Please model this.
Amino acid sequence: MDIDIPAHFPVWLSITHFINLMFITLLIRSGIQILADHPRLYMNQSCAPDTDWIKFTKKKVPKDKYYTSMDDAVDVSRWIALPGGFHNLGAGRHWHFFCALFWMLNGFIYIFLLFFTDGWRQLVPTSWSFFPDLWQSFITILTFKLQPSEIPSYNPLQVFCYFIIVFIVAPLTMATGAAMSPAIAARFPWYRKIFGNRQIARSIHFLCMCTYILFIIGHVIFVCITGFAKNMGHIVLATSNPTYRPLAIIIGIAGIIGIIVVHYLATLWSHKKPRHIQKGIGKVTNLFYFLLHGLNSRQKYPKEAITSYFWINGYPPKDEEWLIHNRNNFKDYKLKIHGLVEKPTELSLADLEALPKTTQITEHCCIQGWSGIGEWGGVTMKTIMELCKPLPNARYAIFHSYQHDENDLEYYNTLDFDECQKPQTILAYEMNEKKLQVGHGAPLRLRIETQLGFKMTKWIRSVEFVEDFKTIGQGHGGYREDNQYFTRGAEI
Ligand SMILES: Nc1nc2c(c(=O)[nH]1)N[C@H]1C(S)=C(S)[C@@H](COP(=O)(O)O)O[C@H]1N2
Ligand SMILES: [Mo]
Model:
């Protein structure tokens, strides 16, 4: 049984098909870039390196040496990933979210037209005889008996593949993509639970990508062996008229060259002007910021959920003052609160411990892909602000670290006052009921539970209140925003 297709395909199908091809290829390449930043996939929350079910790195995690998740990232070729290179995660993510938005928009238009025009009848099996027919066409293909046919029709195997891609894999890709985001998972814990945990969602998202790649390969082979010219007529010009076939082939090839040029320019642009990418297409993520900003984290994991393993990112400070404090168990440490405040304050660890204590068991989501669950104890930023009383013109809190990178750039990040006031925004001095260890930011680190890990400065030296963050660091609101082109507002 071949399913009938009208002699003329609709033109919208050609257009959405082309747009889809462009975005899906950009999504695959930028997705590979994101994966390369933590090239291991797990099904569990702990993300202990020996529990990965697949890895794309030869690196072994040393047990006796300080090793960060950044050390574990791998370099990828520009021919494969967008933009390619080592830890170009910032630009990779900007492309990924930008393309995801337009890919989804295109997909919704396609689905709408599919149902609006009855085109769905070609993709959705409508009778039980479909399944034996599917088996038949599978056998035909396996035994290379497939004949090019002149009638424009989908065979049952095509129908089956298209159905799976359009109605199962595509929605699953979107759903698992959203489930990986702390912005969404922290506010709607039930949504994350559908998939189990962040790592399962991430693994499924990866498998969806593999399915697209296999599908594209199979689909192209199929187009070639079942009458290339005829198929190009359908795909490109939406016509069965043989006279238009040469034109369709020319336009089709031009279209593919066009897509390759877009990839080339996107790659080049990302390497030459990463700041453009961050400030341009990176703005798409602000959409999520505006949509979700008002909602609080509702994370509340039980004690049993605390993970035994917790990756570390960032090497501890080499700052003389911090080293002395560390040797003395931080007994003389004082958190400095300064800038636009009525009462500049210095608080020792004992002072902080004397303030009302908040504990929360939450999931840490690193932008690189790993996660872990920990219990954090400390003082809310709300309490700190009640103490120091920011002046009316203060709008942001800057969290300065003792830690500097190899180029002596200070780690810092910025929160606006809405973010500071959230119940789960705390300065933590405890992790899992113990004093914060050096690796996790001793003596004090920030926790903001709707955000990605990079927003949580460790080894805090001071909190400064400012009107604008443009004059701090390179002016983009944080160390990783300055140097790795992440976006400050990006919670996803
Ligand atoms: N000072 C400083 N703070 C930092 C970082 C860093 O490199 N330096 N890395 C950030 C990132 S990217 C993450 S994921 C978390 C990691 O926290 P953990 O090491 O406690 O797991 O710390 C954040 N805070
Ligand atoms: Mo991170």
Remarks:
- The longest helix spans residues 89-116.
- The first strand starts at residue 3 and ends at 4.
- Confidence is low (pLDDT under 50) at residues 1-7.
